[in-house]
Structure formats: C-alpha cells, structure tokens
Design a protein that fits this description.
This protein has helices at residues 13-16, 84-88, 104-114, and strands spanning 20-23, 28-37, 44-51, 60-65, 70-72, 77-80, 93-94. Helices cover 16% and strands 30% of the residues.
C-alpha cells in the first residue's frame, strides 16, 4: 500500500520539492529545493528556494520564511509578493554553503528582511 502524497489541504514534503515559486506578477523566480522544519513544533520554518544559475551551476539558495508563501492552485506553485530585484538582495547562501541555522541573530535577519515575525515567536 502506498501512502497518500496529497489531499485538498495536506501535501508530503517530497512533493513540495521542485514546486515553482512565482512573484505576484506571475514571473517564475525559482523552485523549492528543500524545507526546514522546526523539530519541536513540527512547523515549517523556511522554504529553501533555488534562484539563479544554469543547470545547477551558480545556484543561490534563499531561505524564505514559510509565512510569506501562498499556494496558488491555478499556477500549481507558490506565490510571494517579491520582485526579482528584492530577491537578488535577499539573504542567501551558495550551493554547498552552510547557513547558520539555530543562530537566532542570523534567522532574525532573514525575517527582518522580509518584514515578518519569526516563526519561533509563538513557540517560546
């Protein structure tokens, strides 16, 4: 028996990987490469979006606070209210890089950049 991978409101994490991310103008910005999940709450904290590069070369990864993504069933992807220019200046790391996860100052900087409250505010 194979597990159900998607319902009307739930989706398996492995199905989110590769989902396109668009801005509100419909421009394809990249795709979800991974998810970061808070171990204690089970809450999705970040979607790691690949951005730029060609055939995996020169890719940059942007941790997007999960709260800024909205799923659009018509597009079959997530929408963020960001321009390409804003994203180009956003916190990012290179392929093979290691973000400073767990460092609240680093993660607060990500949330401050996007103007949203940190996901852990309600947890602690």
């Amino acid at each position: 028996m194979q597990a159900i991978q998607e319902t009307g409101t739930l989706i398996a994490a492995d199905k989110v990987k590769g989902t396109k991310v668009y801005n509100s103008d419909g421009e394809n910005l990249g795709e979800v490469d991974d998810l970061m999940i808070d171990k204690r709450s089970g809450q999705v904290a970040y979607a790691i979006m690949s951005f730029g590069g060609f055939l995996g070369i020169g890719d940059r990864y942007h941790p997007l606070p999960w709260s800024i993504l909205t799923y659009d069933p018509e597009r079959g992807g997530y929408v963020v209210d960001l321009s390409r220019e804003v994203l180009e200046r956003a916190p990012a790391f290179a392929a093979g890089g290691a973000p400073d996860w767990g460092n609240r100052e680093y993660e607060t900087g990500i949330h401050d950049y996007y103007g949203v409250s940190p996901y852990w505010g309600a947890l602690w």
